[in-house]
Amino acid sequence: MAPSLENLLVVGVASSALFDLSTSDAVFASEGKEAYRAHQEAHLADPFAPGVAFPFLRRLLQLNALAPLVEVIVLSRNSPDTGLRILRSAAHHGLTISRAIFTEGRAPHEFMPALNMSLFLSANENDVRKATLAGMPAGQVLASSFEDDDDPALRIAFDFDGVLADDASERIYQAGGLDEFQQHEASNVVTPLDPGPLRNFLAGVNRIQQVAEDRVRVSVVTARSAPAHERAINSLKAWGLTVNDAFFLGGLKKAPILDVLKPHIFFDDQRGHLTQTVPCVHVPFGVSNEKSPATKG
């Protein structure tokens, strides 16, 4: 019997995040739906090349060799017939993905709760924003020049505010500036923040770490600095969650740290903190995505 999805970390992925669909997308944009359909049928035996989220998902799925831990489900706007190439490509690349939903243009995030998903990845900004507005954990993968290495460990990195935590402190910062933010965080140091969109995803990763041990490493990379760092640590403790590394950068650029960490995926709510040298995901949550934000993190 297949394990219940309730006992697994379930990740939904659009074909646009899993594979490089640039050629197919160009056919659709220039020639239309029927030409796109004909193109997919003609190239059914030709596997798609890996996309931005591929290294992360491949390593995540490899953890199932230890125990049933992860389920990756394709959520695609393709029709069932044009989606055949996606699952064939997954099999070609050795990805153990057996479940897929093809919605032929319908927003796929609507099915996330039914599948107990704690994350949805897509290159389609509109789909990701719709999911986020509906209160679901989603992120847009961005173009990357990242080249995977031979280290078997899976490396995951998160921003804190607006990703693991909600945006309450970010709102204080943007309304009152750094001094007011630091004073507010020091005054509320023992009061945990409310969870943000990816808190439950980190909880699922922590459950995997109990089995996978050193096969998964988790980092927080945030522009918080002392004394505001204490509230972040206390919030994680209150949620019952842990990370292996924490970088409190105080406004320093994140890219040099990410270049050393080389995460297989990094989540941030502000595009200005993202880099093309590692696989980055924009989480369009909170005040930083309601207007042109000040720069924090």
Descriptive notes:
The structure is a single chain. β4 (70-76), α5 (84-92) and β5 (99-102) form a beta-alpha-beta unit. Helices cover 35% and strands 18% of the residues. Mean pLDDT is 92; it is low at 292-297. The termini are far apart. The chain is globular. It is built from 10 helices and 12 strands. With 297 residues, it is α/β, with parallel strands linked by helices.
Give the key terms.
10 helices; disordered C terminus; two-stranded antiparallel sheet; alpha/beta; 297 residues; globular; ten-stranded mixed β-sheet
Briefly say what this structure is.
The chain is α/β, with parallel strands linked by helices. Helix content is 35%, strand content 18%.
Helix-strand layout with pairing:
Blueprint: E1 9-13, H1 15-18, E2 19-20, H2 22-31, H3 33-42, E3 49-50, H4 54-62, E4 70-76, H5 84-92, E5 99-102, E6 117-122, H6 125-133, E7 138-141, E8 154-158, H7 168-187, H8 199-212, E9 216-222, H9 229-239, E10 245-248, H10 255-261, E11 265-268, E12 280-282
Parallel strand pairs: 1-4, 1-6, 4-5, 6-7, 8-9, 8-11, 9-10, 11-12
Antiparallel strand pairs: 2-3, 7-12
Distance linking N and C termini = 44 Å
Shape: globular
Q: How much is the radius of gyration in Å?
A: 19 Å
Structural class: alpha/beta
**Helix percentage:** 25-40%
Number of helices: 10
| SSE string | EHEHHEHEHEEHEEHHEHEHEE
Largest sheet: 10 strands, mixed
- Poorly predicted parts: 292-297
The total count of strands amounts to 12
Q: Walk across the major sheet and give the strand order.
A: 5-4-1-6-7-12-11-8-9-10
Strand content: 15-25%
